[in-house]
């Protein structure tokens, strides 16, 4: 199944050229042209994945060294694909950072970083443009459960946009201020769309989409819809289905996962307790658990998720 990204309207337009120019357009759109260091043909980077990958999340400059932002670009890929050096240099680091496998290469004033990558090089190894640094992993990727390579760039001591040195010619991209969320995969959900009753009678406190995580501070996809319900509120199945898992996850806390057929699954997360067992057949409206604040949670709420063929989609498209 393909996993494509869309570029919404009402957005920031970025273009890389030799001089920095900013023009304000009607409606508040900004056309930005920026260069970060020399961009001559000898200094341009090659793409780290072959064939040339799709950019699924663009660079979003952080306002400060510790502020939220997207310090690189995410490139769509396949697990196990070879990851190649973008230019000649020396491996500055090959190991793990906060549990994520990372490779960094110095290029005389520029540094490229690649994650998540199972390294086949060691710190201090000289590399040439196109040399294999390792293979692309799934775990630790910014696009999980989809697979992508996060390519970062530092120009001196500052973060910079890798796309300014990639490819040939200028780039023009339409991106929202917080970066584009993955597009829901194509799935035949016509019989289900708009037919489900919400799992709790409570207002939405955080919708599906890109956001800064309230605990980690990282800009990432919020892969479900949060309902601001009090702890202990009954959580009900949104449709007929079968319970496929009742588990505890460090991030999602106590959770119940249901299969509704056609490749569609729902999960009910951060529960105080589950009221069903794995393998049980459940009718729409049956209580499956109670709202809680388990796992990585800042307070009582229900995090409701829908997956179509293994990929997260916006639950609102299914709810009545």
UniProtKB/TrEMBL annotation:
Keywords: Signal. The keyword Manganese does not apply. One of its GO terms (molecular function) is metalloendopeptidase activity. CDD domains: M23_peptidase. InterPro entries: Cell_wall_metabolism_enzyme (IPR050570), Dup_hybrid_motif (IPR011055), M23ase_b-sheet_dom (IPR016047). It comes from the Bacteria. Residues 1-20 form the signal peptide. Gene3D superfamilies: Glucose Permease (Domain IIA). Pfam families: Peptidase_M23 (PF01551). Residues 69-162, 221-315 form the M23ase beta-sheet core domain. PANTHER family: L-ALA--D-GLU ENDOPEPTIDASE, PEPTIDASE-RELATED. This is M23 family metallopeptidase. It comes from Mumia zhuanghuii. The lineage of its organism: Bacteria, Bacillati, Actinomycetota, Actinomycetes, Propionibacteriales.
């Amino acid at each position: 199944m393909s996993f494509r990204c869309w570029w919404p309207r009402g957005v920031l337009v970025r273009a890389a050229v030799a001089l920095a120019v900013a023009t304000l357009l009607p409606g508040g759109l900004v056309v930005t042209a920026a260069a970060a260091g020399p961009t001559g043909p000898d200094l341009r980077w090659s793409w780290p994945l072959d064939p040339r990958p799709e950019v699924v999340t663009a660079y979003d400059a952080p306002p400060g060294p510790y502020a939220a932002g997207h310090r690189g670009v995410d490139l769509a890929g396949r697990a196990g694909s070879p990851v190649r050096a973008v230019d000649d240099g020396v491996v500055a680091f090959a190991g793990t950072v906060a549990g994520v496998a990372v490779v960094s290469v110095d290029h005389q004033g520029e540094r490229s970083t690649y994650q998540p990558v199972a390294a086949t090089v060691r710190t201090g190894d000289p590399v040439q443009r196109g040399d294999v640094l390792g293979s692309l992993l799934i775990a630790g990727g910014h696009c999980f459960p989809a697979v992508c390579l996060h390519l970062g760039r530092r120009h001196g001591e500052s973060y910079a946009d890798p796309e300014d040195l990639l490819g040939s010619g200028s780039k023009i991209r339409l991106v929202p201020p917080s970066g584009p969320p993955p597009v829901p995969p194509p799935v035949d959900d016509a019989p289900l769309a708009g037919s489900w009753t919400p799992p709790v009678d409570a207002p939405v406190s955080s919708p599906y989409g890109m956001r800064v995580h309230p605990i980690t501070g990282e800009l990432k996809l919020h892969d479900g819809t949060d309902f601001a319900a009090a702890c202990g509120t009954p959580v009900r199945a949104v449709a007929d289905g079968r319970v496929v898992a009742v588990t505890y996850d460090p991030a999602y806390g106590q959770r119940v996962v249901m299969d509704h057929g056609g490749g569609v699954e729902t999960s009910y997360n951060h529960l105080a307790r589950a009221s069903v067992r794995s393998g049980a057949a459940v009718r729409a409206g049956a209580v499956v658990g109670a709202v809680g604040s388990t796992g990585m949670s800042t307070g009582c709420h229900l995090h409701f998720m829908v997956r179509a063929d293994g990929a997260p989609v916006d639950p609102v498209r299914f709810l009545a």
